[in-house]
Amino acid sequence: MANKPLILITNDDGYEADGYRLLIDLMKTLGDVVAISTLESTSAMGHAVTMNQPLRLKTISEVPGFTEYISNGTPADNIKLGKHLLLDRMPDLVVSGINHGSNAAINIIYSGTMAAALEGAMDGIPAIGFSLAEYGQHPDFSHVSEFVLKITEKVLKDALPKGIALNVNFPKKSADPVKGIKTARQAKAVWKETYEERIDPFGRKYYWMSGVFLDGDQRVDTDEKALAENYVAVVPVQCDFTARELLDTLTF
Amino acid sequence: MANKPLILITNDDGYEADGYRLLIDLMKTLGDVVAISTLESTSAMGHAVTMNQPLRLKTISEVPGFTEYISNGTPADNIKLGKHLLLDRMPDLVVSGINHGSNAAINIIYSGTMAAALEGAMDGIPAIGFSLAEYGQHPDFSHVSEFVLKITEKVLKDALPKGIALNVNFPKKSADPVKGIKTARQAKAVWKETYEERIDPFGRKYYWMSGVFLDGDQRVDTDEKALAENYVAVVPVQCDFTARELLDTLTF
Predict the structure, then answer these.
(1) I want to staple A5 with a disulfide (CB 3.0 to 4.6 A). Which of A92, A118, A153, B244 is the partner?
(2) What is the per-residue pLDDT for A126?
(3) Hey, is A100 helix, strand or coil?
């Protein structure tokens, strides 16, 4: 590209989240940035989009090379708004995150962060979702910047096959240095939910969902294994749910 | 199974939707049914789950062989509630729908109907999402019942490989009879969104999302092709986003 690359950014933890502010700062060193997020967290929105209510947008920053919006949409909405309303041309890169919490294994399907990245990929735009395997408001991101830049620079230089996004998960900060980057597959690990029953002040039952994460996947090349070994896990992902191995055998 | 199969049902068009009531009636002929849906439509929720507010449940019917609940959750929540709170044992089958509108091609990723089916599959429960390629409150479902029963009976008899769900889409009712059932792959077709700008009574801008569906996939074995030829399209699907063909070549 002749000029600076145009980078579209969103996240699902709200526009004030540490991981988002860091990602914006890093991307500003690589190109022109348009960022669009929400006032509050929209975690676990999956690939929800907003059809039953109108969308609203507010410009909160507009300086050369950087524009920032707040919307009332989901992460997937935000990338659609960027692609089809806010930008004069398709962005050169869509990045999402850095999520506070892992999007490895089955978490990808619940993840607004990864929905946003996939919204880029489905239009043929190189796209990366970044997540840190640590929850909380202010996790330690000090070990991730060099890898965010390295992976993003490679994608800007070499692009990605059409339709592909990267699901990048960083291990939680530890005393040991990160060992490097591993290309991995999505682990077959699931959540087993539990529901805590409570009684509201009016005598009515309600439930809070929580759960435990069960990784029974013994394969050595999964994202969960890479994280457990203190590697950055990079899974190339796409939006095709087809179980191709069954196409020839499933009959009715 | 010694006794009648236990069938867990949800949808994303609300509990009064024609397609849901029809699916419940059909499933009652095959087993014991537990149905859980929402008061209103929750379309385009994707795989969203509810973490930021408590869930509530109301029992609206309880007779031998049939229990029905209403929740304030998403379709994915509803299957989780069924699996982990409401049922004494894992169901033998999860079915979802019949959705008012197609979930073929990329629609699967925005679909609460298919998120619910995948919630079954990820716990190893045979699962089917049914959708009709016609929108609106009262589409003509008269051509689908025989196929719903045929496909469901086969799945109850033969099960499905662990982790697999079926994404079943019916063509819109036409003068011609449905030609049969085709196993197909998810078409590479996408939405191109447009945003209609309006001004509210207080002078502020807002936007309604709409879009056009673009199917540029020339392959002959896609779900979109099957529907266009008046077949029932059955795509075997799974929750693995890994682009496996890139695992050996993607390096950093």
Answers:
(1) A92
(2) 97
(3) strand
